[in-house]
Amino acid sequence: MTDGMGAEHQWNTFPCYVVRRVQQKRHLLIEELDWLMAALLDPTILATLPCFEAAARLKSFTKAAQALHLTQSAISQQIRQLENRLGYSLFVRQPRGLALTSKGTALYQAVAGVLGDLKQVLQELSEPDAPLQISCPPSFALQWLMPRLHAFQRLHPDIGVRLRAEFHALDRNALETENIDVAIRYTPVTADASHWRVLLDEYLLVVASPEYLRRHPPFATKDWFSSIVLLHDAEPWEGAADLIEWETWLDAVMPGQIDTTKGLQFNLSSLAISAALNHQGVALGRSTLVAEELATGRLVAALGQRIRAPAKYVLMCRQPHAHRTSAFVEWLSYECAQFDQARNT
Predict the structure, then answer these.
(1) Burial of 241 (0-12, 13-18, 19+ CB in 10 A)
(2) Which of 6, 76, 136, 165 could be a cystine partner for 184, CB 3.0 to 4.6 Å?
(3) Which among 82, 83, 101, 81 is positioned nearest to 91, based on CA atoms?
(4) 182: helix, strand or coil
(5) Comparison of pLDDT for 278 and 177, the residue scoring more
(6) Residues near 225 by Cβ (< 8 Å), separated by ≥ 6?
(7) How are strands ordered across the β-sheet holding 132-136?
(8) For residue range 114-140, what is the model confidence (pLDDT) as tens digits?
């Protein structure tokens, strides 16, 4: 109390002209801030920013015009208006396209971030009740993911999920055009697949029903393989080499001894597993897909050797930071880690 009164008394003892000068400077500062905010929120600037972002991203007025369904002259006019308003150049015109100036680069980074965030928020607000779109290989969906989804629903009853069983190749552009929020694929991880995140390793093991193995007692010999029916997932991922999974396992355990071309071939791993459950032969199961059948005894690991698969389960998201997506990915990552730990104990 005393300190406050002392400060007020000290202010009141300043000469009047000093007080007036301070107040004038304060008013000038406020006016400058108001001018700056008005400039930043100037409608003539804001209206040009989508054209600037498209031209800067595509390095071309022509491509920007096509993307925004405008004419090239309209894009040029918008950019010219923005540069005149700002008082400096944003682009360097070159024979083969456009290049950003240093100030243009700084503005583009800011504008791209703001417009991207705004697009994401508007999309989430416009479809608050739309289900989360999950694109997933059919066998992984049926054998592993679908039986666990009830746990996610218990944790997040407000997030609907639509599970789409499909395995065609995807990239980030496809996620946008096909309205996919989260994509899971089983595929080899290569250097050019940096946009995919590894979700789970996979292992291959020979499985069959107890009844089939009673009729064909298992031995890792050429004669035993000649007496059984091989069950194949003929194309475990798009573009996979023929019979790649049986070839991988046999090359590691019995290289060059077995003809893998015989047997029954399916286009889904779950069909090969179903054939094994129906005593039709011996399948090469992925540990992720046959875990439940092995745990219940409906299938048996015939030869014991578990070989690392040539592919992994990987994940890609359209909007990784969106609430629904991040909640699902966090839950899925936890479930995968728990499964992997149990599988390796």
Answers:
(1) exposed
(2) 136
(3) 101
(4) strand
(5) 278
(6) 254, 257, 258
(7) 161-165, 132-136, 182-187, 312-317, 197-200
(8) 888 787 777 666 655 789 999 999 999
